[in-house]
């Protein structure tokens, strides 16, 4: 084999292994997320009581 053929073959094998590792990590991450049932975070919609804000303003003054 010529040097260029060996280079192309080794680069192709390298990128194949890197892609395989990345896909495997992604698969494991998805499997773990499914097992622990991760749900997206939600921001609650709180209503502030105006009386509490007024009392806090008086304490600051």
Task: Give a brief outline of the structure.
This protein has one domain (3-60).
Could you walk me through the main structural features you see in this protein, from its secondary elements to its overall organization?
- It is elongated and about 85 Å long.
- With 61 residues, the chain is mostly helical.
- Helix content is 74%, strand content 0%.
- It has 2 helices and no strands.
- It has one domain.
- Keywords: Membrane, Transmembrane, Transmembrane helix.
Report on the biggest sheet: none
Envelope shape: elongated
Uncertain regions: pLDDT < 50 for 5+ in a row?
none
Write the H/E string, N to C: HH
Proportion of residues in helical segments: over 70%
Find the count of extended strands (DSSP E, 2+ residues). Answer: 0
- Which quaternary structure do these chains form? single chain
Query: Class by helix and strand content?
Result: mainly alpha
CA gyration radius, whole angstroms: 28 Å
Estimated share of beta-strand residues:
under 5%
Mean pLDDT: 88
- Distance between the amino and carboxyl termini: 85 Å
Transmembrane segments: 6-26
Keywords: Membrane, Transmembrane, Transmembrane helix
